[in-house]
Structures are given as C-alpha cells and as structure tokens.
Design goal:
- With 356 residues, this protein is an alpha+beta fold.
- It is built from 6 helices and 20 strands.
- The protein has helices at 10-16, 87-105, 150-158, 183-197, 273-277, 324-327; strands spanning 27-35, 39-43, 49-53, 68-75, 83-86, 109-117, 120-125, 128-133, 164-173, 178-182, 203-212, 215-220, 223-228, 249-258, 261-265, 286-295, 298-302, 308-312, 333-342, 347-351.
C-alpha cells in the first residue's frame, strides 16, 4: 500500500486528532498518489489514504499523479486500514445539481457520446450517464437509411461517437436517474432564424443525406428538406436512387415550408419539357404512340420523350366489356386520335375506336 506523500508535522498530528473522522457518504478532497491497473490510490492528508477501484472512476476523469480530486467515502476504514472511495459517486453528487441548473437555464452545452445503440447515443456528463435518442438528433446527423435497416442505423450512429455535439438537456431527474439530451433543441433557435429568411420559390443548395423509396432527404445549412419522388424529375421516376446519391451536393427549389421541414423540388430547377413537346400535338389529329402501362381502366401511351397520354377503356371499342390487356401489349405501337389536351392539368386523352 503506497504511503502518504504529505509531510506530516507534530502540529498536524495534534490537529489531526481533532479532525472529524471519515464517514460513509462524506465528500472529501484528495491527491492522486499512485495509479495502478485496477485501482487508484488517494492521499487524504491527515485522514490517511484511500483507494478508488477502476469501476468507480468517472468517464473522462484525469488520472495523473499529483492531481487534486474529489471523492465520496464508501467505507471509511477497510480491514487493511485504508478507506474505500469513489470518484464516480462524488461526481454524481455534484453533477445532478449542476445538470439541474443547466436544464433550468436552458443552456446549450457541448458533449461527446462514448457509445451508441440502435436507439441513440450514450453520453456521460458530470459523472452521470444519459441518452440522446435518435429522434432528438439534428437533421444533419439523423441516420437516413433505406427501410428499417437497424445495422445501417447503428453504423451511422457509431460514426457520431466521440465527436462534439451541441445539445440542450431535455429532461433530468435525479430521483428517476434519468438524463435525456436533445440536439434538435440546441439548434432550434438557429433554425427558426434561418426559416425566417427562406421563402417559397427560392433556390437552395444542400447535401443529400438519405435516399428512400418515396424520395430523398437533403440538408440545407442544417435544415432538413424532403424531395418527394414526384419532384425529382419531369420523367416518371421509379427509383429515386437512379437520380440522386447520398453525399451528393444538389440545387433545389423550395416549394413549401412546413414547420421544421422544407419541401423541395429538383425538377422545377429546369423548364417542364412537357409544355414544350405538347405543342407538337393538336386536338382531333392522329398520333402514333407506344404502350407503356396497361390498367383495368385504360392504357398509357408514350407520344414523345416527355409526353404521356391516356386512352380510357371507354375509348377502346364500342363494347362495354372491353379488356385492355386483350387489346394492347406493352411496348407495341398503335395509332390514336387526340380527343383533348389539358395543358393546365398536363393531360392528353386519346381514342382508339375513333381511328377505325
């Protein structure tokens, strides 16, 4: 057992006899005298020495010999004559009070996660372990993945460990041993200021953070935006992944602002080719087109690269029981008559029976 490094004089010994004896739960100051593999020895001056087991060392605690530390007494005198101490418990005692103050003040603080699970990030602050749920991550850090791939979510969350994050305390309770952080709340004020500067119709630049079946998510200077599949291209989009990739920088137009999210459009960054190509067609004339889709109510016909028209089942023949699948085959070409062109609704109606 290491000896105390403090030079104790006779006056100290006399004064020490009047010192209050250590008791369980006391919080005292000491000096690190020795750091071992499984324990840390603490010089308590006239009160002797104590030992802190490694599991009782706070996360991130400096363990340099000679450093001043605050410890809590677990057992004032073990059989070997030294006191059993805890840095973690002492940190918690002080930590809860500090966390409550930070929470009530609404302060923004910087933390680093020490680990992650599929639900979020594990954070220790002031000797107390807390949690930052996935739902409370800011847009730039939210793990956008295909479907519900939990392994990919965990991989993205692990990438955030040991990186500085600005957060606010969302909930703190010493009684329930609960500490919840929120990155969204920390950037909330900044987001509101940025939202106030944005207008519908404005062009913005951002990074694609996730591509899913119904569209793509985009980070615009910390604000989350959604590009719906219908706003990716003027063409019919079957798979958004064919048009945008995660990490790609793109420009888009704001088409709506809803609470804390932007609705964006890629296709509106360019002129609608449909409006240009539809000018080549006239009501009443005959046109040739290729069958692209067959449904119970009709068939869709490609007239040009950007113009698609519909021939309704009622315009396929005089028989009310017409079956489109018996009349058409995919990719075959047929001649139709243009019944109507609605440029506002971007629709063209065709007739097969009027050609006969």
């Amino acid at each position: 057992m290491p000896k105390s490094t403090t030079n104790v004089t006779m006056d100290d010994l006399l004064a020490g006899s009047e010192l209050k004896q250590l008791e369980t739960g006391d919080v005292v100051e000491g000096t690190i005298s020795s750091v071992r593999k499984h324990q840390v020895w603490i010089d308590l001056g006239p009160r002797g020495v104590g030992i802190v087991m490694r599991r009782e060392v706070s996360h991130g605690q400096s363990l340099e010999e000679g450093a001043q530390v605050t410890v809590s007494v677990i057992d004032p005198e073990m059989d070997e004559g030294y006191a059993l101490l805890s840095m973690r418990r002492a940190a918690k005692d002080r930590g809860w009070d500090e966390l409550q103050r930070v929470f009530e003040a609404g302060e923004i603080i910087e933390v680093q996660a020490y680990d992650a699970n599929r639900g979020g990030l594990l954070v220790e602050l002031e000797g107390i372990r807390g949690f930052l749920p996935v739902s409370q991550l800011a847009a730039g850090h939210y793990p956008r993945v295909s479907g519900a791939d939990k392994d990919e979510i965990l991989q993205k969350l692990n990438a955030l460990a040991n990186k500085p994050l600005r957060v606010r305390i969302l909930d703190v309770s010493r009684k329930d041993n609960k500490l919840i952080f929120s990155e969204k709340e920390a950037v909330k004020d900044d987001m509101q200021a940025r939202f106030a500067e944005l207008k519908v119709g404005v062009e913005v630049e951002g990074i694609v953070t996730g591509v899913i079946d119904f569209g793509a998510f985009m980070n615009v200077d910390g604000i989350e935006g959604l590009i719906h599949i219908s706003e990716i291209s003027w063409e019919r989009v079957e798979n958004p992944r064919d048009y945008v990739k995660v990490g790609e920088t793109v420009k888009a137009k704001i088409i709506a602002i809803d609470k804390d999210r932007l609705s964006l459009s890629l296709k509106q960054m360019s002129e609608d080719p449909w409006l240009k190509e539809v000018k080549a067609f006239k009501k009443g004339e005959k046109v040739e087109g290729k069958i692209t889709r067959i449904t119970p109510f009709g068939a869709f016909v490609q007239l040009s690269s950007s113009v698609e028209a519909l021939v309704h089942v009622s315009e396929m023949g005089d028989d009310d029981s017409v079956d489109p699948e018996k009349i058409f085959q995919l990719n075959e070409k047929k001649t139709f008559k243009v019944l109507d062109i609605d440029t506002e609704a971007r629709k063209i109606s065709l007739s097969l029976k009027s050609v006969k």
